[in-house]
Specification:
326 residues; TIM Barrel
């Protein structure tokens, strides 16, 4: 394994997600066993303009290491300039996003939009590697659409220009997040005898058992867990347990509420009450997924807009389910 990554047979990493993998959530996932975390993606142009929101995305604490800061852009000069800014934050590595499929990114040639021009993608990546003092990693997809899935060759070329590790989402740009992730091509990259850098797989890992099964079937060096981690930091602990031959442990309602409350309070400290209350709504579904008779609490959680209103709801949840258990 390369020097900035832990030396383990399988690394369990938090996949970067916009408006999700912020400082408090990364800290929480690390505490539950994530081996590697990556920031939300940051636009190179915004960093270069000194946009405060973008610079704030780079904030991290030492316990989050090893940590990567992920950037995206379509202009080589903008990306080269932002690399210098990112290096001032002193992450362990810099991750280049050649994988985001959303229109506002890919539509202007960044993210997976660059998969239309693989030669240019490789050329820009080579320039970034030469320019940077930190390791450069890449997150990408299988290709642009069904007619073009050059990931096996592209992975070799990225390795040859000095990329330190590669993460692959098993879909094309055209698929967005629909259909089924094709892990066979991820496995083909990992099992290519020419490849020697770490290869991470990503896509459709909704449970700890699925993450472990994918790693064992395709031999990847690590698994990236994305949407399944939203409101579910325990997925990292459960995956680590299964990798060690241990059973998953049950998560009590009291623990769910306690961790959710801690997460919310950390978000309030980091972003302020209004933003934290709004952004935590995407996590509540994960924290309380599959809990019977929860509708009476779910609607208030996603409609109240002050901390003073939210915290008593947590208390009522604990009281309600403790009485049911009793």
């Amino acid at each position: 394994m390369v020097s900035f990554l832990p030396d383990k047979p399988c690394l369990v990493a938090l996949s970067p997600m916009d408006d999700v993998t912020d400082h408090p959530f990364r800290q929480l996932c690390k505490s539950f066993g994530a081996d590697v975390v990556v920031t939300e993606f940051i636009a190179s142009e915004a960093l270069n303009r000194e946009a405060e929101k973008s610079r704030r995305k780079m904030v991290f604490d030492e316990p989050q290491r090893p940590l990567g800061i992920q950037v995206f852009g379509a202009d080589e000069s903008e990306l080269l300039q932002c690399i210098e800014i990112v290096e001032e934050a002193r992450p362990d590595f810099i991750d280049i996003n050649w994988g985001c499929p959303v229109r506002k990114v890919a539509g202007r040639g960044a993210g997976s939009g660059m998969l239309r021009e693989p030669d240019r993608l490789v050329s820009i990546t080579a320039s970034l590697v030469r320019h940077a003092h930190l390791p450069i990693t890449v997150k990408t997809r299988l290709g642009y659409d069904e007619s073009s899935k050059p990931i096996v060759e592209l992975a070799e070329r990225l390795q040859d220009v000095g990329v330190a590790a590669l993460a692959i989402h098993g879909r094309t740009k055209a698929q967005m997040y629909k259909g089924v992730a094709d892990w066979t091509l991820i496995g083909a990259v990992k099992n290519n005898p020419r490849m020697h850098i770490p290869v991470f797989g990503n896509g459709d890992l909704t449970t700890a058992s699925e993450a472990v099964e994918a790693q064992r079937r395709y031999g990847v060096d690590g698994v990236l867990i994305g949407r399944a981690a939203i409101g579910n930091p325990w997925i990292f602990e459960q995956t680590q347990r299964l990798l060690q031959g241990l059973a998953e442990r049950p998560i009590t309602m009291a623990e769910r509420v306690d961790v959710c409350r801690r997460h919310l309070l950390a978000e309030v400290d980091f972003k302020g009450e209004h933003s934290a209350i709004f952004e935590m709504r995407k996590h509540y579904g994960g924290y309380f997924k599959g809990i019977a008779d929860f509708k009476q609490f779910r609607i208030p959680l996603v409609t109240v807009d002050t901390l003073e209103q939210v915290l008593p709801i947590f208390d009522r949840i604990v009281d309600h389910y403790s009485r049911l258990d009793g």
